[in-house]
Design brief:
The chain has 13 helices and three strands, in the order βαααββαααααααααα. By secondary structure, the protein is mostly helical. The protein has three domains: 2-84, no CATH class; 126-272, Four Helix Bundle (Hemerythrin (Met), subunit A) (Up-down Bundle), CATH 1.20.120; 280-378. Strands 1-3-2 form a three-stranded antiparallel β-sheet. A hairpin with a 2-residue loop joins β2 and β3 (62-64). α8 packs antiparallel against α9 (226-262) and α12 (322-344) runs antiparallel to α13.
Length: 378
């Protein structure tokens, strides 16, 4: 039986969920094999097309499957797919480690299979939970015709105002996810782990940092018009999808998965429940227990502050009153207090060194924002 090189190339493109560079390597290995310069079809090993790797032979520039090879398991279905141009099913790529990991900054679009898996998981675990409304909105936005569309068709760009509208709706859903109607409702929960609450708060901060980067990038559209503006819209919309929307979907999936486990029948109270963590330390509490309480409350306050100040800077006036100036100085002292606590009680702080670095940088950014703001003139 013969199969054309074009058919096999098409099947590799459709069914092998690897980064583009790896796909290109597979295609080049195929060309080399047909032209006599390659090492058979070893590049297909470990993919849904693996049965073809040992069965295919090259004869007179054609790809041939010997009759004896048809006894091999899985080969016939691969050949049917190749002849029809149908994509073979591959196990979905796993989501980022949802155990205790911060989000990873992304620089390229997700593979189609990974994106589909993230959306399906979000739909499955988000149903019937306290955050189901946010989940449904995120799924709609991922398929909504516009500059941030990620599934169901190509994005459409319109004008800059349209981009800002879509981005604002998306950023609003991120914040709603962490308000009282969402994760904020678990602040005193006996079943919600403190370590998870802190992790999700830090991920929220990460996403706001990336959102702010997109917003700052969008500000560079000033003065652009015509083809230059359209090209800029393509670039900034791509950045918003990759840098902000993709990790937001992964974050929401992690949150939904944990929230579902918290609400499950027979849930067991964790040793570090938020209910216990939020209780004010008693007179007999140790220094370490007092620092842990302060650490958690600082994190929650900085999370709220960062959302209100850095992502909604327009709500603050350019002229600061004496009371506001005093408040800014207090935040400067908060950074000093936090730095002192980290240095004095390193063993009592539950965050990892990487997570502490995120919070320390946040403190520094907030202080710089206030210091710069005090220099703003009318």
């Amino acid at each position: 039986m013969q199969i054309s090189r074009d058919q096999l190339q098409q099947l590799i493109q459709l069914s092998v969920q690897h980064p583009p560079a790896q796909k290109q390597a597979m295609l080049q290995a195929l060309v080399d094999a047909v032209e006599g310069g390659g090492s058979a079809f070893a590049a297909l090993a470990g993919t849904p097309l693996q049965p073809l790797a040992s069965a295919l032979r090259v004869q007179a520039g054609c790809l041939v499957v010997p009759d004896a090879a048809f006894t091999q398991e899985g080969l016939r279905s691969c050949l049917v797919d190749a002849a029809a141009g149908v994509a073979a099913e591959e196990d979905p790529l796993p989501l980022a480690d949802a155990t205790e990991a911060l989000l990873v900054e992304q620089s390229a679009p997700m593979e189609a299979m990974q994106l589909r898996h993230a959306l399906e998981m979000l739909l499955t675990v988000g149903e019937g939970t306290q955050i189901s409304a946010v989940v449904h909105m995120l799924l709609q936005l991922a398929q909504l015709d516009g500059p941030l569309r990620m599934h169901g068709g190509p994005p459409s760009y319109g004008d800059l105002n349209n981009f800002h509208q879509h981005l604002n709706v998306l950023s609003n859903q991120l914040n709603v996810l962490h308000e009282q109607s969402g994760l904020g409702g678990y602040l005193q929960s006996p079943f919600f782990s403190r370590s998870k609450f802190e992790l999700f708060a830090l991920q929220h901060v990460q996403l706001m940092v990336w959102l702010q980067r997109v917003q700052q990038g969008a500000a560079q559209a000033a003065g652009k018009a015509g083809p230059d503006l359209q090209q800029f819209l393509l670039q900034i919309a791509h950045a918003a999808r990759v840098l902000f929307f993709q990790p937001l979907l992964l974050h929401a999936a992690q949150v939904a998965q944990y929230v579902r486990s918290v609400g499950a029948v027979g849930s067991v109270e964790p040793a570090d429940s938020m209910q216990q963590a939020m209780q004010y330390p008693s007179d007999s509490a140790s220094d370490a227990e007092r620092v842990e309480w302060l650490h958690l409350n600082l994190l929650i306050q900085f999370q709220s502050l960062y959302r209100d100040v850095l992502c909604n800077a327009a709500v603050f006036e350019l002229h600061y009153s004496n009371a506001e100036a005093g408040l800014f100085q207090a935040f400067s002292r908060l950074e000093e207090i936090y730095t002192h606590l980290i240095g004095r009680f390193p063993a009592s702080c539950p965050l990892s060194e990487q997570e502490q670095g995120v919070l320390t940088q946040l403190c520094q950014k907030v202080v710089k924002y206030f210091q710069d703001g005090k220099q703003i003139k009318a």
